[in-house]
Every structure is written in C-alpha cells, then in structure tokens.
Amino acid sequence: MDTLSPESTALVVGAGGGIGHAFVRRLLAESRVGRVWAATRSPRNPDLVALGEAYGDRLAPVAVDILDEQSIADLARHIGDIDSRLHLLINAFGFLHDREADIWPEKRLEDITPEAMLRNYRVNTLAPALIARYFLPLLNHRERAVFASLSARVGSIGDNRLGGWYSYRASKAAQNMFTRGLAIECGRRAKRVICLALHPGTTDTGLSEPFQGRVPEGKLFSPDFAAGKLLECIDGAGPADSGGFFAWDGAPIPW
Q1: Which of 126, 201, 223, 249 sees the fewest Cβ atoms within 10 Å?
Q2: What domain of life does the native source organism fall in (predicted)?
Q3: Which residue range forms the structural domain that includes residue 150?
Q4: 107: domain CATH number?
C-alpha cells in the first residue's frame, strides 16, 4: 500500500468478520499506515486483542452497530475527534443468510419474505450509504482517499444468468448503484475521493460456508488472499476508476 504513509489513517468496518480481520491484519503488517480503526460490534474479540498486542496503538478497535444510524454517527464523531482525516474506508461486511431467523437465499419467487428482503437491504445497501453520509467529511481533503465496499458478482444485473437469490442480488445491485451515485457526487464536491465496489470472489467465511460445496476447485479463496488482492485493486485505483465495480483480480464486472 505505497499510497499510504505514516500520517495516513484507515477504517475497516466489519473488522470482526473473516475478510474484515484480514484487511486489518494486512494494513497493519504490510503498509506504512499510521493508524487502523477496526470497527465491529465486539471490539474486544480475541483476534483484535492479539493484533493490538502486536501493533500497539497503531490499531484502534471501536464498537459500531451498522444497523443503528446513531451508532454510525457517533463513530464518525469519535474518529474525527482524534484523526481529522481518513485515507481509506473499507466496508467489509455483508448479509446473506441467518440460520436462527431461517433466512436463506431464495430459490424461487414463492420463497421471498419481507423480513429477508429488508434484512438484506438494511445491511448490504443502507449501512454503506449511512457510513458514506457520516464519513465523507473525513475522507474529503487534499490527499487521495478511497471509499470501498465489498459487493458481490451476483449483484450484477448484466451477469445474472441463473436467477434466484432475489434479496441478496437486489440489495447488492442497489449497493452498486449507490456506489456509482456517490462517485458522481464526489466528482463535484470531494474530487480526491475514489469510490469502489469490490467483489472478493467466493471466500471461506461464515457467509459462504453453507454454499461452498458447489464452488469449483481452486475458486474458494482464503480471507487473507481475498484481502490482499482487493488491497492491490484499491492501491491501483485512480480517479477514472471511481464508481466502478471490480473483481478481486482487477477485472471490471458489468453492472
């Protein structure tokens, strides 16, 4: 991450998840970033505690509830009181299923429920939008900054050849549209901010676990691999890429 310096700050929202934790670890280990804010519902989880012991105050674990607008606003205020600028913000969270609530990707139209569709939309679309709303002032400065959200190839309208998974597909397509709109607005009022929608590939996390049996050999990535490839995409992105939707290997994905 050569674009980051000892004066740079990064925020990973969803740092308690598999890819989120991998982002935090790689940013601390492989870049010169000054501080990494790691936002999660449980900032005292053992993985973050271990990283804190290794990297000291370069890591700043903080609590956030991405389903609570006030919690997001409070987090932005807290970070802004300590660091006046952010150079990288990664939304590393997502929702696909909930075993306890019996929410699963739909196989047919009759499987759609308001609960599942709204849950997908709140996490995958509304949360990134609210995070952008409250954190854009910290990203808008004279240096390069990146706002990146993990999306999914199944959110591509042009690439949808199988159907199904209505709630997840729709929420990710809406997230991509938001990212595109944000990039256009930033082109007018925050010209140094690059906005990206990123597909990590099928990654070995709890989100994909029930569906890994159908993944072709060699196509199930570790969180560390996915985070590393996506950081390469982030590092190489320029103003012309803002608003784009890219896979883990840097290839553009159709909207």
Answers
A1: 249
A2: Bacteria
A3: 9-247
A4: 3.40.50.720
Reduce the secondary structure of the chain to three states and give it as a string. Answer: CCCCCCCCEEEEECCCCHHHHHHHHHHHHHCCCCEEEEEECCCCCHHHHHHHHHHHHHEEEEECCCCCHHHHHHHHHHHHHHCCCCCEEEECCCCCCECCCCECCCCCHHHCCHHHHHHHHHHHHHHHHHHHHHHHHHHCCCCCEEEEEECCHHHCCCCCCCCCCHHHHHHHHHHHHHHHHHHHHHHHHCCCEEEEEEECCCECCCCCHHHHHHCCCCCCECHHHHHHHHHHHHHHCCHHHCCEEEECCCCECCC
Does 1 reside within a domain? no
Model confidence pLDDT, tens digit, residues 85-116? 999 999 999 999 999 999 999 999 999 999 99
pTM of this prediction exceeds 0.90: yes
- Number of separate domains in the chain: 1
CB burial of residue 206 (10 Å; 0-12, 13-18, 19+):
exposed
Residue 200 lies in a domain: yes
Task: For residue 203, tell me if it sits in a domain.
Answer: yes
